[in-house]
Amino acid sequence: MMYNYDPIYTVKCFEEIVNTPSPVAYYRDMNPVIEKIAASLGCAVSFDNKSTAYITLEGEDNSKTVMIGAHLDTIGMVIRSIDANGMIRVRQLGGMNFHSVEGETVHIHTRDGRSYSGLCTVTSHSVHVFEDARTMERNEDNVMIILDEDIKSKEDVTALGIRNGDFVSVEPRFQMTENGYIKSRYIDDKAAVAICFNAIKYLKDNGLKPAYKTVFAFPYAEEVGLGGTYVPEGISEFLAVDIGLIGPGLDGREKAVSICAKDATAPYNYDLTTKLINLCCDNGINHAVDVFYRYGTDANAAMRAGNNIKNAAFGMAVYCSHGMERTHIDGLNATLDLLLAYLLSK
């Protein structure tokens, strides 16, 4: 740790955020939580028409405005149809890996504010019954949700207020081991949101301002490539705090911060990425620099949309992205160290 912050605040903040459902485009439950956390830090939250949440901090120098983005949306599902026998069929929201959610508890969020639990499985759900239980492809054609209700027909389901278009979230199952490993769905990207709040807390606790005027943005559509397409007027730099990846040909590791030099779309800004690397080298921050293939962030979505900005991306590396992910508190701390080093540097 470079800075004297409370690392457990990051974990506790993450736990609260990750246990609040927010699949792509579903912000109703999460935005009040964001407002509550911000208020505890003495910050106000504003929202645009897409319900992206913004927190703005005045800088030592307000001649330049930078933006830190960490997305609140997660992968999830949406109801597409209800079978005659009451089984619920879905479409994915974002890059869902259906293998990782088979047998998992899910929650259906109705338009009138109710919530129902269910089991996500496949039509050939039992090895004792179906010959192809092990070999059936796990995809939208074969996945279904069994409600935890006494259901025998489509009419039984609709009588509960459940309709096509209702959002479905997956149980996150957060846990932290005694030696600092964090296992949970949606480390991507709710851990990054928690890191942003701890950065704000550190500045507030120590009476500090960032070097430049800073806007923290928390959108709800990164998983479908839309979260960063709108950038408020006056922003010159956009840093996405998002997960790093672990795997063959990658240097990323759970106890370090990963700096993304290029994703599936394009390289990130040369000067800004170099600045992040130099901040790590100069301050002894455990880091890796990687090129990601099946990956993107809001910062490059902003570039694709034609915004006139410099962009960069970094964050804690995880195993099993878009599944039950794992990282380490040291990786969260390294990401927070780099974020604070950037915020406080000219």
Describe the structure in your own words.
The chain has two domains: 7-74 and 186-343, Zn peptidases (Aminopeptidase), CATH 3.40.630.10; 76-170, Beta Barrel (Elongation Factor Tu (Ef-tu), domain 3). The two termini are 21 Å apart. 25% of the residues lie in helices and 28% in strands. Helix 1 (7-18) packs across helix 5 and helix 5 (187-205) crosses helix 8 (329-343). Strand 10 (175-176) and strand 11 (181-184) form a beta hairpin. The strands form three sheets. Strands 1, 2, 3, 12, 13, 14, 15, 16 and 17 form a nine-stranded mixed β-sheet that branches. Strands 5-4-9-6-7-8 form a six-stranded antiparallel β-sheet, with no helix packed on it. It has a three-stranded antiparallel β-sheet with strand order 10-11-18. By secondary structure, the protein is of the alpha/beta class. The mean pLDDT is 97. It is globular and about 65 Å long.
Count every helix, treating DSSP H or I runs of 4 or more residues as helices.
8
Number of domains: 2
**CATH architecture heading of the largest domain:** 3-Layer(aba) Sandwich
Q: Tell me the series of helices and strands, N- to C-terminal.
A: HHEEEEEHEEEHEEEHEEEEHEHEEH
Oligomer state equals single chain
DSSP strand tally: 18
Q: Find the CATH topology of the largest domain.
A: Aminopeptidase
- CATH class type of the largest domain: Alpha Beta
Per the principal axes of the C-alpha atoms, what is the gross shape?
globular
Q: Averaging pLDDT over every residue, what do you get?
A: 97
Q: What fraction of the residues are assigned to beta strands by DSSP?
A: 25-35%
Radius of gyration: 21 Å
N-to-C terminal Cα separation, in Å?
21 Å
Which percent range fits the helix content?
Answer: 25-40%
What structural class do helix, strand and pairing data support? alpha/beta
CATH superfamily of the largest domain: Zn peptidases
Q: Low-confidence runs (pLDDT<50, min 5 residues)?
A: none
User: What does the largest sheet look like?
Assistant: 9 strands, mixed
